[in-house]
Amino acid sequence: MEYRVLVIGGGIAGMEASAFMSDMGFGVTLIERKNKLGGHLLDWEKLFPTMRLGSEVLDFLHQGVDDKVDIKCNTEVISFNRIGDKFEIELNNSEKLTVDAVLVTTGYDIFDAVRKEEYGYGIYDNVITSADLEKMFCENREILTSNGNKPQKIGFVHCVGSRDEKVGNVYCSKVCCVTAVKQSIELKEKFPDSEIYCFYMDLRMYGMHFEHLYKVAQEKYGIHFIRGRLSESFENQDGTIMVKVEDTLVGRPMKLNVDLLVLMVGFVPAEGTLKIGSMLGLENGINGFFKTKDQHTLTNVSAIPGIFFAGTCTSPKTITNTITDARAAASTIASYLHSHDVDKRSINENPDK
Amino acid sequence: MRDEGKKRIWQEYQKEIADDNYYYVRSCIRQTFFPGSEHTFVKILKEELAKNLYETPAHTTCTGIGYHSDVVPFETTMTVVARQFSLMSEAGYKNYVPSCITSFGLYTEILEIWHEHPEIEDKIKEWLWKATKREFKKPENLAHSSDIIYKFRENIASIAKYKLVNNENGKPLKVVEHIGCHYSKMFPQKGVGGAEYPYVLTGMVKSWGGEVIDYPERRHCCGFGFRQYIVQANRGYSLGCSKKKFESMEPYEPDMIITNCPGCPMFLDRWQYVISETEGKTYGKDGHGIPVFTYEEVAGLVLGYDPWEIGLQLHQVPCEPVLEKMGIRYDPAKKYLGKNGEYLGKPVSPDYLKFY
Description:
The structure holds two protein chains of two kinds.
Chain A: E1 4-8, H1 12-23, E2 27-31, E3 46-47, E4 52-53, H2 54-65, E5 70-72, E6 77-83, E7 86-91, E8 96-99, E9 101-104, E10 108-110, E11 127-129, H3 130-138, E12 153-160, H4 176-190, E13 195-200, H5 210-219, E14 224-227, E15 230-235, E16 241-247, E17 252-258, E18 260-265, E19 267-269, H6 271-280, E20 307-309, H7 319-337
Chain B: H1 3-12, E1 22-25, H2 30-33, H3 36-48, E2 53-54, H4 64-68, H5 74-91, E3 95-98, H6 101-116, H7 118-132, E4 141-142, H8 145-151, H9 153-158, E5 174-178, H10 181-184, H11 200-207, E6 211-212, H12 227-230, H13 235-249, E7 256-259, H14 263-279, E8 292-294, H15 295-302, H16 320-326
Parallel strand pairs in B: 1-2, 1-3, 3-4, 5-6, 5-7, 7-8
Helix pairs in contact in B: 3-15, 5-7, 6-7, 8-11, 13-14
C-alpha cells in the first residue's frame, strides 16, 4: 500500500524532506501558505560561507519536488483529526486529506527589530536589518543612506533579538555571526573606501569554512571587529547614527558615528509554527520552538505518534543543517511507517532545559 | 527620524491613570529646589480641573535617596513605604500620586516585588504591625503626578491662555523633554510611552503647541544620579553628564527644557550657571542659557499663572526669554518681591550667563 504524508511548510526543510519521501515511494502532499515554495531562501541573494547564489540551492530543491510531489501553495490546514493511525485534515481550499504521517516544517520568523527600541529601527532612517540589506542585494538596489549618499562608515550589530534576556530570547540564532561577516564583505566590495565595524559579543564561527571567512574579512577586507554590545544608538542632526558601545577588549566605552547601521536579526518561532502547534496539540520548548521528543536522539519526533518535525521549527539552523535535518526526518518517517526496528527504540525522558 | 515609528511604540506603552480622588504625596527636595511646582500642581487640579486631592503632613520620606545611595536597607525602605500606604488606606483613598520620580520608581519596584514575592509583602506587613500597629492596602492605581497632568493635557489646552508658540514668528517653541531615570527605565510598562521614547512630557508639549526636539544624548542622565552628586568627590562626573547633554542639544537651538523629576531641573538649571562661570560657555543665544522648567511650571504658564507666583524667580537660568517668546504678560519689577510685597533683594549677576 502507498503511505501518504502531509508536509506543512514549503521552505527548505519541507521541500527536501518531500523530495526524499517521494523518492522512497510515499505519496507526499506539500502545502505552503504563501504563493510559492522556497521560504526565506527566496529573500537571500548569496549564501555563506561560499557566496553561492541562494537561487542555485533553490533550483536544486525544486528538482526534488517539481512534478514529483503534490504541491499546494496558498494553502493552510484549517482542521485536524486523528482517526486511529491516520490523520484527517481539511485545507482552506475545502480539500480533505487522509494521511499516515504529518511532517511539520513551518520554519521561523525574523525577529522584529522594533522590539530593540534602543536601536531605533523604524524610527531612525539609516538603521536597517540584515534582512533588509539582503533584500537590497536580491533586488540589485543601490545601497544609499537616507540623504542619497554612499555610506562611508557602516556598523553591524550582532545578536539583535538573540542571546538577549531583555527581549526574552536567550538562545543563539546560529547564522547571524557569519551572515554579518558575509554581508560586511559584500558591502566592502561595493564600497572599497568604506570603514566597516562589526559589534559582537562572541563570534560563533562553528561551521566548516566560517572561521576562514572571518579571517578573510579581517585580513583581506579590513573589517573591524569590536567586542561589545551596543547600549543604544541615536540619530544625529545630519542623519548619521551615533552608537554607544563598550569595547570590552580595550575596557573602554566608545561612541562612534556611522552612516548606516545594520541590525543582525535572529530567529523567532514562526507565527505559523505557533498556530499549527496549537491546532495539532504540539508542545513548545522553553524558547518557543517545538519541543522534540528527545534533544539528542529523537530530534525529528514529536510527542504525538505520526507527527514529525524538520528544520527551523525546532531551533535555529543553517541551510546546510536544515537540509540534513530534512533528510533525517524523511528517514525517521520511513522507519515509522514501515515499523522498522530502529523506530522502536526508546530513551528515558530528558527535560527540555 | 520617523514619528510614525515612535507612535507605534507609544501605543504599546499606555497605562491606566485614575481620573479623580488622588492621594498626593510631595517630594522631599522639590519644596527646596522649585517650591512653586507642587503648589501649582495642587492649584491646577483643584481649581482648574475640579479634582479631589488629599494630602497629609504625616507623610514622610520614602527613603528613595537613601535606598539608591545604599545607606538604607531595602527592608527598611519597604516598611516605610508600607506606612505611607497605610496613611492612604486610613484616609480612604486608593489612587496614590507621588510628586517625586524616584518615589514613583520605588513604589513601582516595591509593588512589583510584592506581586512576584507575596511572602515578602507578608513579612513587611508583619514588621509594620510590630513597629507601628498599622495595616495597609496597596494602591489600586499608582501614577506619577506628571501622568496626571498628561492625562488632562487636552483639558488644560482647552482653557489655556498661552501656547508654547513663538509669539513673534508663530512657530512652535522647540522643547527638549527630559524624563527622570526612575520614571520608566526600570519598568517601561509603567511609564506613558515606555523607556526609550517616553511620551508623558512629549504629549504635554504637543498638546500645548510646542515641538519636541530629539537629540543624541536625550536618554542620558541629567547628572544627579544620587551617588554622582551626593558623594562629593563624584560631582565632576555629575557636571560632566549635564554638560554632555547641553553640548548634544545645543545645535538644535532649543528654546527650553521641560522635566518631570525633582533632580533633573535642578541640575540642568544650576550646572548651566557653573559651566558659564567656569568656562564662559552658555548654551542659548546671546549669552542666554536654556531655561529649564518643571511640567507643572509649564502648565501654569500655559494657564496664565503669574510667573513669579509659580516660583520662576528661583531659576538660575532666567526664564524671561521663554516668557517673551510666549507673549506672557508679567511685571519684571515683581520678580524679587516676597509674598508680602517686600523686596527680597536681587542675586549677584553671573559673569557670563545673561541675567535679569
